[in-house]
């Protein structure tokens, strides 16, 4: 006879807000583990993209996720959104939370952001996890090059339900577990 025990489910993350510099920033913070993980989303998405991973990691770690400046429900100031600017933003967010050291996980553009963070503040980064990271290698993918074209790129980054469904479905392994509300 096999007995299976389930971990106690964690409630969905609660939106919190903090000022990072002069930018009102939405974030999640859950878990009570002794190690800290900071999750950084990629281009064109928000922290909801990490919801399932966030909840699972919060079972055993203290986990933070934020909407990067210019994304999700974080304010969108009129600034130049470079990788260096975004890395500084993540650094300032971490300082607001009094985090001395953490594992940083970044997906796509978020990978380039946490890589820059690790180069700028190596003492802050205990571990670095890059998931399909941008910023590695000399060639940009065709999709990323298209996004840089005047007018054409702007069309592709405008919210569009069909494009988001295709994008998100390609980003998950188990198609049946795709949360449709992520598109909304």
Helix amount: 25-40%
How would a crystallographer describe the biggest sheet?
6 strands, mixed
Number of strands: 6
Task: Report Rg.
Answer: 17 Å
Low-confidence stretches: none
Summed up, the helix count is 6
The 3D shape can be described as globular
Helix-strand string: EEEHEHEHEHHH
Strand content: 15-25%
What's the overall average pLDDT, rounded?
83
**Could you tell me how far the N terminus lies from the C terminus, measured between alpha carbons in angstroms?**
43 Å
Strand order of the largest sheet: 1-2-4-3-5-6
Please provide a written account of the structure.
- 30% of the residues lie in helices and 20% in strands.
- With 184 residues, it is α/β, with parallel strands linked by helices.
- The longest helix is centred in the middle third of the chain and has 14 residues, at 83-96.
- It is globular.
Ordered list of secondary-structure elements with their pairings:
Blueprint: E1 16-20, E2 23-30, E3 36-40, H1 51-57, E4 62-66, H2 83-96, E5 102-107, H3 109-120, E6 125-131, H4 142-147, H5 152-157, H6 161-170
Parallel strand pairs: 3-4, 3-5, 5-6
Antiparallel strand pairs: 1-2, 2-4
Helix pairs in contact: 2-3
Q: Which characteristics define this entry?
A:
6 helices; six-stranded mixed beta sheet; globular; 184 residues; alpha/beta
Quick recap:
This protein has helices at 51-57, 83-96, 109-120, 142-147, 152-157, 161-170, and strands at residues 16-20, 23-30, 36-40, 62-66, 102-107, 125-131.
């Amino acid at each position: 006879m096999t007995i299976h025990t389930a971990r106690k489910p964690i409630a969905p993350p609660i939106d919190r807000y903090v000022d990072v510099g002069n930018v009102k920033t939405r974030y999640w913070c859950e878990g009570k583990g002794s190690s800290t993980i900071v999750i950084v989303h990629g281009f064109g998405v928000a922290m909801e993209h990490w919801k399932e991973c966030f909840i699972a990691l919060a079972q055993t770690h203290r986990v933070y996720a934020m909407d990067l400046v210019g994304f999700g429900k974080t304010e969108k100031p009129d600034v130049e959104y470079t990788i260096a600017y975004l890395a500084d933003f993540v650094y300032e967010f971490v300082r607001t939370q009094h985090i001395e050291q953490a594992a940083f996980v970044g997906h796509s553009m978020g990978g380039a952001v946490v890589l820059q963070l690790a180069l700028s503040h190596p003492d802050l980064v205990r571990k670095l996890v890059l998931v399909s990271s941008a910023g590695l290698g000399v060639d940009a993918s065709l999709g990323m090059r298209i996004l840089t074209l005047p007018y054409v790129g702007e069309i592709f980054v405008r919210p569009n339900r069909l494009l988001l469904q295709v994008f998100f479905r390609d980003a998950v392994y188990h198609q049946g577990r795709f949360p449709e509300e992520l598109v909304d």
